[in-house]
Amino acid sequence: MCSLVGETFQRFCAASSDHYVSFLKKLPAEELVRHSSAIFSLLKWSTRDSKAPAEDLKKAVSSFLLATSQNGVEVLRAFRKERGKIVDKDMVCSGCIWSLDVLITKFFYMRPVQAVHCLCNLELTGDSLLRAVHSVGVCPELASSLISFHSRGVKPTFKQLWDSTSDADAARRLLIRMARCGQADSVADWEALRDEVLELTESIYSELIHPDEAIDIVTREMLSDSRIPHDKHVLQLFLTLDKKAPKRTERGRLSLEKSAEVLIGKSEEMMQEASGPGDPVLMQSRSLAEAAREIAPKAAAQQLKLLETVDLAHELGSTMLPVSIKFAEPYAFLEEIVKLNGNYKQGKKCAKLAVLLGVDTPVATAL
Length: 367
Prior knowledge:
By secondary structure, the chain is mainly α. Helix content is 63%, strand content 0%. The protein is built from 23 helices and no strands. It has helices at residues 2-5, 9-14, 17-24, 29-34, 36-46, 53-67, 74-82, 89-92, 100-106, 126-136, 140-151, 158-164, 168-180, 187-204, 211-224, 232-235, 256-273, 280-291, 297-315, 322-326, 330-339, 347-357, 361-366. α14 packs antiparallel against α15 (211-224) and α17 (256-273) packs antiparallel against α18 (280-291). The longest helix has 19 residues, at 297-315. It is elongated and about 100 Å long. The termini are far apart.
């Protein structure tokens, strides 16, 4: 050890445990594992004359473990095996979210229910992280959640996962990523993905995300999938399309009010995403608005009227984006269309466009 420190024996004996850790963390993990017993003895020796040697030893060990656990848990497992009473499960679950200065005062005084996962300081993701989590043998519900996320192509760090269990926005972001990367190619795949997201939500996000929101997230992504038809038989697997349906909906299906909100909202979103005339997204937008006719007649009629306006304007030669047409000033837009390519000769179509835009008949006639 004196060779490692590279200083006098007297200075070495007077150094703090943190001083030793600053050198030890530079060693390869396999060396730290092989000499874990000696390292533990060194840390114990360094706290021998303190006022609270037991507590200071715990602090020294935690500092050492945090410094050596960036890329794996081999050292952590070795110390748990070496001194189970010191590196117990509470300790394994504590250090990572605390910076070292906060950790020094709080690490060993937290109640178990408040403890957080020591694996948070790992920079690993994917299979390497899964192996590390299983090898430590703590937090089984989060280990299971990691498997679910990984199976759907989402590979967060352990800290990202842990943070999401106390932050609704972080939880929402992970669930959206799961819905978007979920590798669903068929209706059955989307049903399975919905059920998995719902189960995950109820497992680790029950106090943050309502089950309806989890279903909403998957349903909106499913409606964006051009491979999935928007016919009633498919939609009713996720949505309630019958006004006479009981208020208490089946598991995995949104309520009547929420279904209307999703259909109209997604129709509007798709229309605004359309790049111009002939974009297939416009047909998808229309099919969703039509599906909402029974459960949201006014909103559906308004959306279908806007889509009809877009179609007619494009038919008359407009190249404006649908979203631009939606927010265009009606009188100025109608005048522009009438002047375009001799459209003034197509009186019936221009008159129909005027009605759709809500332009008064006398003004439309003058144009």
